[in-house]
Amino acid sequence: MKILVINCGSSSVKYRLFDVNTDSRELAKGLIERIGTDKAESEHKAGEVSAKETAPIRDYRTGIAKIAEFLKGAGVLQDDLAAVGHRVVHGGEEFRDSVVIDQTVIDQIDRCSQLAPLHNPANLAGIKACQEIFPDIPQVAVFDTAFFHTLPPASYLYALPYSWYEEHRVRRYGFHGTSHRYVSEQAAQLLGKPLAECNLITMHLGNGCSMAAVRQGQAIDTTMGLTPLEGLVMGTRCGDIDTAIVFHMLGVAGMSVDSIRQALEKQSGLLGISGVSRDMRDVTAAAEKGSDRAGLALEIFARRVRKYLGAYMVEVGQADALVFTGGVGENAWHMREMILRDMEHLGIVLDENRNRQLKNVPAGQSISDPRGEVEILVIPTNEELAIARDSHRLVANASPSDAGVS
Questions:
Q1: What domain range is 42 assigned to?
Q2: What strand order describes the sheet that includes 365-366?
Q3: What is the mean pLDDT of the segment spanning 98-106?
Q4: Per-residue pLDDT tens for 278-317?
Q5: Same domain, 260 and 111
Q6: Domain-located, residue 398
Q7: Is the pLDDT confidence value at 63 over 80?
Q8: Same domain, 243 and 117
Q9: Which residues, including other chains, have CB under 8 Å from residue 50's CB and lie 6 or more apart?
Q10: Residue 242 sits in the same domain as residue 325
Q11: What's the average model confidence in pLDDT over 62-68?
């Protein structure tokens, strides 16, 4: 059974094709960037067959049609597509699980576009394009927010006028949920326990960063909030700040709301502090060459993770494992070391040699010292595979009426 996974960004389409009947083997993958321009860049790979092109691609339908054309030409997709799985960023409170898409689902995703104006419209455009190109194939929506539907009200509500929640849906939703769910499931396998018996703290660290507290297999807290801006320091996002800074900059600096938003989302984080880059590798290299600001950026990044780690250790109770994932979490041994230093009193003891020598571990690996009470795991995330598995589950075992709408 072949599943095509589509992830539409504001001007891009990423895709992967899986055969879920052969241990979820990846058959093809690719990326189209700069959609909507005359110089859209496409890159495709299926086994030994690859293609690159720069050409006009004005909309998602044209881009996805080119993807279908490549897959058929490469011989990896004929008339054997079982489903198309779509990443959808925001499911609001409407969706607690992945769903088979019908018109009601489309309407609900559109309604959630108010909460994710940069993402949901693009996700919807990809869904509608695939409905035209693959008219007889089930389409499945997998939501970044769904994993966090188990958060209790004390976790998801802000101390704001309650009417803001009732009338405007202002609450914590959380993001990166598909990644947190995937690595939680992988961690349970590595621990040899059912997920429902696992207490975990998962850390998705990349250009975007978030953490989740998982107690008995269910998310009970997470760092991102109404939007992906809250929480940890990220590549260009500030994470937690005193909200009165916004009023201060409006009044004292005369900045506009739009310019402040641009600064908080695109000019802050590692880039804003270091003045070098949003990329952890560049910031680390600059720090090693003596840049004080780059070194400070690394310290602030690590300190924010440590603060949440301490809080989540309290929330989950006896933690079974800490899980690092994402581009930084999987590859930056120095940052893992900075985050976990001097935590022996919490039962967290890092094996520095294993941490520094860790290379390419697709199934995940422990980097904890045997003296520790809490496992420290590095698990590469695979959100696309999680989407493919959800799509397979739904089209093989459920009907469109089992939509998971709350």
A1: 2-172
A2: 218-222, 209-215, 200-205, 321-325, 375-378, 365-366
A3: 97
A4: 999 999 999 999 999 999 999 999 999 999 999 999 999 9
A5: no
A6: no
A7: yes
A8: no
A9: 43, 44
A10: yes
A11: 96
Domain assignment present for residue 38? The answer is: yes
Taking 70 as the threshold, does the pLDDT of residue 127 lie above it? Answer: yes
Neighbours of 347 (CB within 10 A): 14
Residues 278, 368, single domain; the answer is yes
Cβ of 245: how many Cβ atoms within 10 Å? 12
Q: 329 φ, ψ to 5°?
A: -60, -35
Asked, for residue 238, whether it belongs to a domain, the answer is: yes
Give the chain's mean pLDDT: 95
Q: Are 223 and 345 in contact (CB under 8 A)?
A: no
SS3 state at 210 = strand
Q: Is pLDDT above 60 for 149?
A: yes
- Whether 144 sits among the annotated catalytic residues: the reply is yes
> Do 126 and 200 share a domain, yes or no?
no
Please give the single-letter amino acid code of residue 41. Answer: E
Computed on alpha carbons and rounded to an integer, the radius of gyration of the chain in Å comes to 21
Single out the catalytic residue among 38, 97, 102, 144.
144
Q: Are strands 139-143 and 209-215 parallel, antiparallel or unpaired?
A: unpaired
Give residues with Cβ within 8 angstroms of 159, minimum separation 6: none
Q: What ranges in 81-211 are assigned the alpha helix state H? A: 103-111, 120-133, 153-156, 162-168, 177-191
Where is the domain boundary, 172, 207, 226? 172
Same domain, 235 and 334: yes
For 272, left (φ over 0), alpha (ψ -120 to 50), or beta?
alpha
Domain count for the chain: 2
Asked if 380 and 179 touch (Cβ cutoff 8 Å), the reply is no
Q: Look up residue 117 and give its DSSP letter.
A: T
pLDDT above 60: residue 404: no
% of the chain at pLDDT higher than 70: 98
Same domain, 208 and 63: no
Alpha carbon of residue 139 to chain centroid: 21
pLDDT at position 22 over 60: yes
Q: Is residue 189 part of a domain?
A: no
- pLDDT tens track for 160-192: 999 999 999 999 999 999 999 999 999 999 999
Token pair, residue 105, equals: 């689902």
CB 287 within 8 A of CB 295: yes
